[in-house]
Structure formats: C-alpha cells, structure tokens
Write a structure and sequence with these properties.
The structure holds two protein chains of two kinds. Helix content of chain A is 33%, strand content 19%. By secondary structure, chain A is α/β, with parallel strands linked by helices. Classes of the chains: A alpha/beta, B alpha/beta.
Chain lengths: 285, 266
C-alpha cells in the first residue's frame, strides 16, 4: 500500500527523536532547515520529569539510556518548543507516546492540527514501555490499533510515521500491520531493550546496534517494496547513511552520534543533499 | 533559509584542536589546546567537551582553566585532566602535536558582582580550574579575592603557587577544606565554589540564610554536554518552591546555590 501523502522531507537526513534537544541547542551547530526534518523528543499528554541518575551510561560503541521520556507535555510543547522549532526553520516531526489508545488519539488530534507540524512519529518502540507505563504495542495488532487511533482524526497533509523496534523476527509483520492501519511510512529502529549496569531497564543505541537495525530495514524493504522506510540506528557518518539507503531506506535518522559530535547530521545531510550532487537512494513516490 | 532570531550570536563551536603542550603537575595532566574560537568566547566557568572517538560516544568535559596566547595562537585553552577512566587516560596520554575534536565554550558561566565585593573562592581538586579566570576577572573589578584550595592530598591541590601569584590570599587545605571555608565566610559577600557535590552542598548549607550569595559550578556526568540528551538532570526549586528538572550542561553548570534542590540531587 503506497501512501498518497506528500513526502515533506527534502533531504534524506533527519534527527532521531530525543537526540536534538528542543532544537535550539542543535541549531547552534547548523541550520535545521538544511535537514530533512527534526524529530522531537516523544511528547506525552502530561509533563514527565524523567528518571533518576544515572540516565545514560557508556557501553562499547554505544550508550544505554533511561531518560524516562522527560518532556513538558503537549501543552508545553505547543506553547514553547514548537514555535521555537518553526522559528529555526525546522521541518517538524512530532514524536508522540501515549498510555492508552485514547491518549494516542488525543495527541494525534492536538499535534496534528498545530500549524507547522508536518508529520507525526508514533513511538511504538520505547525500550521500556511497561516500566514507563506506556501502551503496550508489542504485538502487531496492538501497533496497528495505535496507528488506527492516530489516523482517524488526523488532518490531511500530516504524514503519519510509525517507529518500530528492530526485532528481526517481527519487524516485517509489524510494518505491514501499521501500514495497513494507515501509517504513511515506517521508521525502523529505536534503542534496543537493554539494562543499565545497576539493572534498571534502558535502551542501547549507537553503532553497536547498527548492523542489527540495518538487517531489519532490509527485511522490511524486501517484504514491503512499496512502503517508505526510514532507517534509524547507529549512523555515525555518510557511509553508514548510504548503507541504509542502499538497503532500501528512503531516509535516515541520526541520533546518538549527535551526542558525540553535534554537527554529524548537518554534515551527512550536506553530503547527501540532492541539490548539491547526485541523489543517493532518493526515489520519487 | 530561516535563522534563529533568539539564538546566540556567538555560540559554542565544534572544532579540531591541536595539543600545543602537555605536562604533568601533581596528580593532574595539563593540556594546552589551540582550539579556534573556543578560547576567544570563553568566560569564567565555561567548559569544553572532548570527543574521544574509537567507539566511545560520551563526551569528556573539562573546565577551561586558562586562556592565553601561545606559539602564535591568540587564545590557547588550558584544561586539567585527572586520569580516572578510559577516556581521561587517553587524553592524559596525548603529546604535543596530537589533535582532538572539542566543542566549546559550553555552559552558563559565573555571574560577576556589579560593585566591588569581598569574594571567597572555594576550589576542590581539579575543579579549582573553573575558578582561575574568575579570580582574574574579579581582581580586575577591584574585588577582594580570597581562595581556599582543597584536594584529597597535596598532589590533588591544583597549582597553589600559581594561585598565590594571582590571588591575594590563598589558603591550602588538603584533606578537608571545611574549616578553612567556615573561617573565611564571615568576611565575604559572595562565594564561588567548584568541587565535588558534597563540598558544594557543604558550602551552600554554610551560607544558607545569610546575606552572602553563593554560586556553585556543579559537575555532573555529562553525555553530550550540549543540551541534547537530557542525561544530566539537576533538580532545582523555583522561587515558589516548585520543583523542576533542568540540565547541568546548558542550564548550568553554574547555579545559584539556593536554587539547587540538594536533597533531591542524587
């Protein structure tokens, strides 16, 4: 099933949710409008203060994080963060996480009708959704029901993305389910379920998981050749991004690399800019 | 192209820095870095973050100890490294000529008093590096500056001789600096402290309820150091006693001591 929505990303490089701060911090190091899109941290209906320290621990070629979805809630996002992002010229993708189907629907309604939100990214792959009290979208039918709830009241012209866990055994099946339920594209890859050294649940991100996420992108691209796939996992440089595009991704998201070098996404975006050189992996729908 | 109207004119930059000099003093390694535009914009309390690379994603952050001309560069930045973990050992092993990726200057710096004031600076271990340029700025503003330098032992007291040359009164208190701080407090208007959370909390408690104002340079483990990752939460209290969580790296690292919720700070 091919989406009829317009693809709003003019560059194949986006930031990954939770990795670009509120936008202003990242804009210190480059022009947000030069990126395909800026994906916000996951917005919940109510504000969340986040978890206790340590929240992030280094691991070989990766990071284990347990931020606990700290965010100002949908009201704070609409009043402060969204206007700032639009001022900075960002193509805004609002990431959402809900505790229930009703909450997802409400988030999609209020963010979907906000001027300047070009896409919603439904976070179905929080590494510790149970501990975070979020809606359990482990099974494909659960993921599909979330997408259905979001699609129902979503304004036309807002792209609906589903962010899925890179579980190779289930990812193609889940991707098919969410696309059938109304997702315009699937984002493959989130931090993988892991544990901090003290045993608390967290998520592993960074180059350590890149080969694993890449495999999942290839699986989905093969199973759903018409679907738009965005790859997200451990991209540190242009070669990594090209590997995802070659595997069938239409775009990529850069996350943990920004913590190491905040210019990473800008550099890769510049290199892959369709306007400044031959298009790489770009495929007009 | 849209640009930020509210954004800073001069922000931190991510650049390749060259190590111009490396030396060992006591327990610490001092690195002098030619890092274009980092030193020029640095202010007292600023820090920089190093990307170690080689599979290590988290940044290593260091107080900017000194800024000055060296080897034809206008604003060479000195940092003080205590070799403790894998990352800092890599840095401590760098020799002149090596290059590293750095981002800086980062963080909210110290606020300086508008009028000449009597100032107490409390520096523990390598964190005393955060106070070096502060002492110079305060002296330029005709402030009376006294400095208490602490550290686990003499090797961990940062450059007491150099401090004596630039600051009038220096008291070295290796082992335990609390008595020296308490002795000086009655005679000062403003306190600036940099050190372990326990020491900062001691100073904050000591001035609590008095007319003395206190700023602390709070050191937390930083992953990105640039405000992106939300990995460095600092619990703070608003004027109405309302609780917030802010980031040490961009909302600090310098805080008014009375703003920090020390009880909730883990």
């Amino acid at each position: 099933m091919t989406s009829t929505q317009r693809w709003p990303f003019t560059n194949p490089v986006l930031t990954a949710s939770g990795c670009g701060g509120g936008g202003r911090e990242l804009a210190t190091y480059g022009d947000l409008s030069a990126l395909g899109g800026f994906v916000t941290r996951s917005v919940t209906l109510q504000p969340r203060l986040g978890g206790r320290e340590p929240r992030i621990v280094e691991s070989p070629s990766g990071l284990v994080n347990a931020i606990g979805l700290q965010n100002t809630g949908v009201t704070g996002f609409l009043e402060v963060e969204l206007p700032a992002l639009l001022d900075l010229g960002a193509t805004v993708v609002a990431s959402i996480a809900g505790h229930s189907l009703g909450e997802y629907a409400e988030l999609a309604r209020s963010l979907g009708r906000a001027d300047g939100v070009m896409a919603l990214e439904v976070n179905l792959s929080v590494p510790d959704s149970a501990g975070s009290g979020l809606f359990d979208a482990r099974e494909p039918f659960q993921a599909a029901s979330v997408l259905g709830s979001c699609r129902r009241d979503l304004r036309d012209g807002v792209l609906l993305l589903a962010k899925l866990r890179s579980d190779v055994a289930r990812v193609a099946e889940t991707a098919r389910a969410v696309v059938d339920a109304g997702a315009d594209a699937v984002v493959i890859g989130n931090a993988l379920p892991a544990a901090l050294p003290d045993g608390r649940p967290g998520g592993l991100s960074g180059p350590a998981i890149r080969p694993q996420t890449l495999r999942c992108v290839a699986e989905v691209a093969r199973a759903l050749p018409d679907a738009s796939v965005i790859g997200c996992g451990g991209i540190m440089d242009v070669e990594d991004a090209v590997a995802y595009l070659d595997a069938g991704a239409r775009a990529v998201q850069v996350g943990s690399a920004l913590f190491h070098d905040p210019t990473t996404a800008f550099r890769i975006a510049h290199h892959l800019d369709p306007a400044s050189g031959p298009a790489v992996g770009e495929d007009d729908a | 192209m849209t640009t930020s109207v509210a954004g800073p004119v001069h922000g931190p930059v991510h650049v390749t820095a060259e190590v111009l000099a490396a030396k060992t003093v006591g327990a610490y390694h001092h690195l002098s870095l030619a890092a274009p535009a980092v030193g020029e914009e640095s202010r007292p309390g600023s820090f920089l973050a190093v990307s170690i690379g080689d599979g290590r994603l988290a940044r290593r952050s260091f107080w900017i100890h000194r800024v000055g001309p060296m080897a034809g560069h206008r604003a060479v930045v000195d940092i003080v490294v205590e070799p403790r973990g894998a990352g800092s050992r890599v840095l401590a092993g760098l020799a002149a000529g090596a290059t590293i990726e750095v981002t800086g200057p980062l963080g909210r710096p110290f606020s300086l008093p508008r009028e000449p004031a009597r100032c107490l600076l409390v520096g523990e271990g390598y964190a005393a590096a955060a106070l070096t340029t502060l002492a110079e700025r305060l002296r330029e503003r005709a402030c009376e500056v006294r400095l208490v330098l602490g550290g686990a032992d003499d090797a961990h007291v940062l450059e007491p001789l150099a401090a004596r040359r630039s600051v009038g009164q220096v008291e070295v208190a290796a082992g335990d600096l609390t008595a020296a701080v308490l002795r000086s407090l009655p005679d000062v208007d403003v306190v600036y402290a940099a050190g372990s959370p326990a020491t900062l909390r001691f100073v904050a408690d000591a001035v609590h309820g008095s007319a003395t104002t206190c700023q602390v340079a709070l050191e937390r483990p930083l992953t990105c150091a640039t405000g992106l990752c939300q990995g460095c939460p600092v619990p703070v209290l608003g004027d109405a006693g309302d609780a917030h969580v802010v980031r040490a790296c961009v909302d600090g690292p310098v805080f008014r001591a009375s703003r920090v919720d020390w009880e909730a700070l883990s």
